[in-house]
Amino acid sequence: MGAVLFLVLVVGGCALLVSRAVHQLTENAHPAEDVQAASEAAFKDVVVNRCESTAQGREVKGTVTNQAGRRSDFVIQVDFEGPTGQQLDQGTAIVQGLNPARSAEWSVVSRAERAAASGAVCRVAKVMRTSSP
To answer: What is the pTM of this model?
Structure first.
């Protein structure tokens, strides 16, 4: 019973964070060209340090460094891909309130059996950076 409650709290907390990030992204929307340019710049802020199989599944760990001149939130989407490039799973990391020129660690775990069993490649697919209050 305790494990189920813990799982419900973790999933609910993650859903709340993603919901807040999506809401903030839509509230701070710019014209398409500006969003594209911002995404490309934010992509350069993210580094993958490790991609390995763990007891929890396939895990990717990395660092994000805020190179923008303002406090920012980051949403980092990771794809777990098989040997022929097919997507086996997907996950998201959220880093909030990162001050300029500061770094933070992030991680995503795929619990999909096929990702862990195949030694999936971990690839950062998308990075969104928004101003943080």
So the answer is: 0.72
CA 110 to chain centre: 12
3-state secondary structure the chain: CHHHHHHHHHHHHHHHHHHHHHHHHHHCCCCHHHHHHHHHHHHCCEEEEEEEEECCEEEEEEEEECCCCCCEEEEEEEEEECCCCCEEEEEEEEEEEECCCCEEEEEEEECCHHHHHHCCEEEEEEEEEEECC
In degrees and rounded to multiples of 5, residue 62 shows phi and psi of: -155, -175
Residue 43, CB-side half-sphere exposure with 13 Å CA sphere: 11
Q: Are 52 and 59 in contact (CB under 8 A)?
A: yes
pLDDT digits 0-9 by tens, 100-130: 999 999 999 998 887 777 788 999 999 999 9
Q: What is the pLDDT of residue 29?
A: 44
Contact between 53 and 119 under an 8 Å Cβ cutoff? The reply is yes
Can you tell me which residue has the tokens 């934010």? 42
